[in-house]
């Protein structure tokens, strides 16, 4: 592959696909989905028609339905007449409805962490999830219909189902108007750790360079579980993916720079009310209070986690926490 110009070595000595390598990988994907060519063109035509009508933002629900992008009242729309086949017996998902009435923070300009449907019709829920997985396997673009600026308007995003996780009951849709590159091998702990965005832009793959809070959240939950790391609360919608080195300090979206924290303990961490001691992973509170008990933190350390955050992130957050406590800095603690 090196001789063919498909691989190249970056400045860190890591082998990665060259531009020609990415193009060949895309071509392999196209050849492996010969039955989806017409459907791909149909979806592209829908998108072009939406743009020509003034979209994708603040368009009417009627226009979206007229173009065939969405129909019915379910969360996941599947046109089975067009996409049902032996390899996709439940069809291939075309669009996903996100009303914004609950968990609106999971929908961003970059993508959405879309939860599996749970309704009083579990059979239909199962078929929709299967159709969403078929969209992932086919590599076909999908649409997400979200709330517009008023109650009668909608916004449509174009993207791809990037990954799914049955244990989490969620799938990740990344928004892009281009093709999504094939995923890199999942060997997260072997990848070079990057503490800041500046470093990650040089070392991450093309896929990982795409900003997406949903991807970060999904990988944090996959790594650590869905319960708050310091109190054990495990309630859907109340546990967030928190950055140890904050985004406002250019913290990276490497999942080893994160922890699952409930909303209260996420806010308390950001306000430097508690921290994680490097090496021991013991939890500490500010000398001036409140203490861990008053904060509702029931775990003495993070050793109970099945996997641990990166030492670099823990050390960085510890130093940031100590800046607000001059007595610690003076003693070198």
Which features does this protein show?
PUA domain-like; alpha+beta; two-stranded antiparallel ribbon; disordered C terminus; 333 residues; 32% helix
Would you give an account of this structure?
This protein has 333 residues and is of the alpha+beta class. The protein has 3 domains: 1-32, no CATH class; 36-175, PUA domain-like (Roll), CATH 2.30.280; 227-331, no CATH class. The chain has 11 helices and 13 strands. Strands 3, 4, 5, 6, 7, 8 and 9 form a 7-stranded mixed sheet that branches. It has a two-stranded antiparallel sheet with strand order 1-2. Strands 10-11 form a two-stranded antiparallel ribbon. A hairpin with a 4-residue loop joins strand 8 (153-165) and strand 9. The protein is globular and about 65 Å long. Residues 199-210 and 329-333 have low confidence and may be disordered.
> What is the terminal separation in angstroms?
51 Å
> Rg, please?
22 Å
The appropriate CATH architecture of the largest domain is: Roll
- Approximate helicity band: 25-40%
Order of helices and strands: EEHHEHEHEEHEEEHHHEEHEEHH
Which stretches of 5+ consecutive residues score pLDDT under 50?
199-210, 329-333
In percent, how much strand structure appears in the residues? 15-25%
How many helices? The count is: 11
* Structural category: alpha+beta
User: What is the number of E strands?
Assistant: 13
Overall mean pLDDT score? 83
Overall domain count: 3
User: Which class of the largest domain in CATH terms?
Assistant: Mainly Beta
The CATH topology of the largest domain corresponds to: PUA domain-like
Largest sheet data: 7 strands, mixed
Q: What's the overall geometry?
A: globular
């Amino acid at each position: 592959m090196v001789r063919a110009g498909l691989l190249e070595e970056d400045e860190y000595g890591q082998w990665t696909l060259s531009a020609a390598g990415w193009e060949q990988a895309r071509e392999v994907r196209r050849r492996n989905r010969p039955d989806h060519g017409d459907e791909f063109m149909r979806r592209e035509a829908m998108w072009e028609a939406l743009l020509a009508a003034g979209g994708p933002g603040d368009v009417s629900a009627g226009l979206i339905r007229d173009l065939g992008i969405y129909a019915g009242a379910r969360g996941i729309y599947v046109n089975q007449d067009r996409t049902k086949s032996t390899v996709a017996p439940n069809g291939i998902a075309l669009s996903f409805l996100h009303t914004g009435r609950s968990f609106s923070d999971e929908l961003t300009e970059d993508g959405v962490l879309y939860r599996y449907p749970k309704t009083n019709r579990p059979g239909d829920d199962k078929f929709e999830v299967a159709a969403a997985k078929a969209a992932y396997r086919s590599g076909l673009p999908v649409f997400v219909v979200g709330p517009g600026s008023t109650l009668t308007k909608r916004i449509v995003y174009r993207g791809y189902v990037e990954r799914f996780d049955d244990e989490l009951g969620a799938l990740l849709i990344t928004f892009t108007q281009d093709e999504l590159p094939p995923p890199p091998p999942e060997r997260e702990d072997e990848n070079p750790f990057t503490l800041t965005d500046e470093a990650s832009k040089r070392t991450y793959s093309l896929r990982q360079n795409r900003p997406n809070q949903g991807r970060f959240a999904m990988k944090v939950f996959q790594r650590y579980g869905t319960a708050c790391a310091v109190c054990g609360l495990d309630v859907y919608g109340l546990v967030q993916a928190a950055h140890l080195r904050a985004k406002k300090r250019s913290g990276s979206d490497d999942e080893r720079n994160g922890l699952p924290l409930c909303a209260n303990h996420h806010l308390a961490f950001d306000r430097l009310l508690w921290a994680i001691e490097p090496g021991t992973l013991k939890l500490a509170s500010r000398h001036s209070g409140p203490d861990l008990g008053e904060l509702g933190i029931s775990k003495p350390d993070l050793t109970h986690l099945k996997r641990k955050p990166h030492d670099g992130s823990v050390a960085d957050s510890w130093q940031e926490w100590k800046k607000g406590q001059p007595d610690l800095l003076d003693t070198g603690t």
